[in-house]
């Protein structure tokens, strides 16, 4: 495991704050909400969008998955991860908006 340099830490912290601000304005948090890894969801007609943000600098990623509501084993129909270090916030927001539009 390598130590993060100062630039990476600042990028992760900045992107984490921007992502959390966006998600707080767009979605509601799940009942189990940990400060270091907040989870958000959006309920569509047939599926649920789950977004988990890992703020730990060694992980520093966002997991996005879509789960069909009638899928009892919770296998995702769609799954993607974003790295907080090199994240483009605008592209992330567009990707989430696109996923939501496809769900409804």
Summed up, the helix count is 2
How confident is the prediction overall: mean pLDDT? 85
What characteristic shape results from the CA principal axes?
elongated
Structural class: alpha+beta
Multimeric status of the protein: single chain
| Number of extended strands | 5
Order of helices and strands: HEEEEEH
Low-confidence stretches: none
Overview of the molecule:
The chain has 104 residues and is an alpha+beta fold. Helix content is 35%, strand content 28%. The protein has 2 helices and 5 strands, in the order αβββββα. A 5-stranded antiparallel sheet has the order 1-2-3-4-5, with helices on one face. A hairpin with a 3-residue loop joins β2 (39-43) and β3. The longest helix is centred in the N-terminal third of the chain and has 21 residues, at 6-26.
Helix/strand layout:
Elements: H1 6-26, E1 28-29, E2 39-43, E3 47-54, E4 61-68, E5 78-83, H2 89-103
Antiparallel strand pairs: 1-2, 2-3, 3-4, 4-5
Briefly characterize the structure:
Strand 3 (47-54) and strand 4 (61-68) form a beta hairpin. The protein is α+β, with helices and mostly antiparallel strands and 104 residues long. The protein is 35% helix and 28% strand.
Question: What features would you highlight for this structure?
Answer:
single chain, 104 residues, alpha+beta, 5-stranded antiparallel beta sheet, 2 helices, 35% helix, elongated
């Amino acid at each position: 495991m390598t130590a993060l340099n100062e630039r990476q830490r600042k990028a992760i912290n900045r992107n984490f704050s921007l992502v959390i601000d966006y998600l707080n304005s767009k979605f509601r948090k799940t009942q189990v909400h940990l400060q270091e890894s907040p989870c958000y969801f959006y309920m569509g007609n047939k599926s649920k969008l789950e977004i988990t943000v890992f703020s730990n600098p060694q992980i520093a990623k966002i997991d996005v998955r879509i789960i069909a509501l009638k899928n009892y084993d919770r296998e995702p129909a769609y799954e993607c991860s974003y790295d907080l270090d090199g994240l483009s916030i605008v592209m992330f927001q567009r990707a989430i908006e696109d996923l939501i539009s496809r769900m409804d």
